[in-house]
Design goal:
two-stranded antiparallel sheet; Fumarate Reductase Cytochrome B subunit; Hydrogenase_cytochrome; iron ion binding; 245 residues; 67% helix; metal-binding; mainly alpha; Cytochrome B561; transmembrane helix
């Protein structure tokens, strides 16, 4: 038995834990609503229902983006294991640590970590990039689809027909828009919706992979990985490699 066996460490602070579960819930909702919208024709969804779903999707998206922005800030000012130096796959010695972890994983006895293990850091980077791309493209689409902030006012002013108050435009109704301006706006929108849709599928796959990796690590490492995101504490069965970083 090592000296640290069964020793309990406080790892995840409250901000990290709240961010994690708000992000988990909002992304799950966004993926579910997005899947329904994407298959709207096949599901027989009416135009009015589609506007409602897009509106709900946007409001949940606002929650995700604000939560993500807070996490970006917290990565600079938060507790030790919340900071970017302990979360992202950068910094001196990362690749040697990654090699050591992969060798230990192949040997059936993975090295223990209080924060994210080296593979987990790579996944965190991928997830943050994907979430950021979805957030940015989603904010653009919120303006082009239902005239919501931050670009909705500008989009409405762009497509409104001459003499029409942009504030009176109704999502899904093209009777008050200028046809040429509408087509130009849709051309502007196209690369954003294409990227949003592609990242939707990549993010779905990454989320599934992340959950499977967490389950595998929970079973193999027995350090309370999932419960730590609820109460903040880990109890590794061996000396953690990042205890003295």
């Amino acid at each position: 038995m090592t000296q640290s066996e069964n020793e309990t460490y406080r790892v995840w602070d409250r901000s990290v834990r709240v961010f994690h579960w708000v992000n988990f819930t909002s992304v799950l909702l966004l993926l579910a609503i997005g899947l329904i919208i994407y298959n709207g024709k096949a599901l027989g969804i009416s135009a009015e229902a589609k506007v409602f779903l897009k509106t709900f999707h946007v409001w949940v998206g606002y929650v995700m983006v604000l939560n993500l922005l807070w996490r970006y800030l917290w990565g600079f000012v938060g507790s030790r294991y919340a900071r970017w130096g302990a979360v992202l796959p950068f910094g001196r010695g990362y690749f040697s640590e990654l090699g050591a972890y992969l060798r230990s994983l192949a040997g059936g006895e993975p090295r223990r970590y209080l924060g994210h293990n080296p593979l987990g850091r790579l996944m965190v980077l991928v997830l943050f990039v994907l979430l950021t791309v979805q957030g940015v493209t989603g904010l653009v689409l919120a303006g082009t689809d239902i005239y919501y902030p931050p670009l909705g006012g500008w989009i409405a002013g762009w497509v409104a027909a001459a003499g029409v108050d942009p504030a009176t435009l109704v999502p899904g109704d093209k009777t008050l828009v200028d046809p040429a301006a509408w087509e130009a706006m849709r051309a502007f929108r196209k690369p954003y919706i294409t990227l949003h849709e592609w990242v939707f599928f990549v993010l779905s796959g990454a989320a599934v992979l992340h959950i499977l990796a967490v389950v595998a690590a929970e079973i193999k490492e027995r350090s309370g990985l999932v419960s730590a995101m609820i109460h903040g504490y880990k109890t590794p069965d061996r000396e953690p490699e990042d205890r003295s970083e």
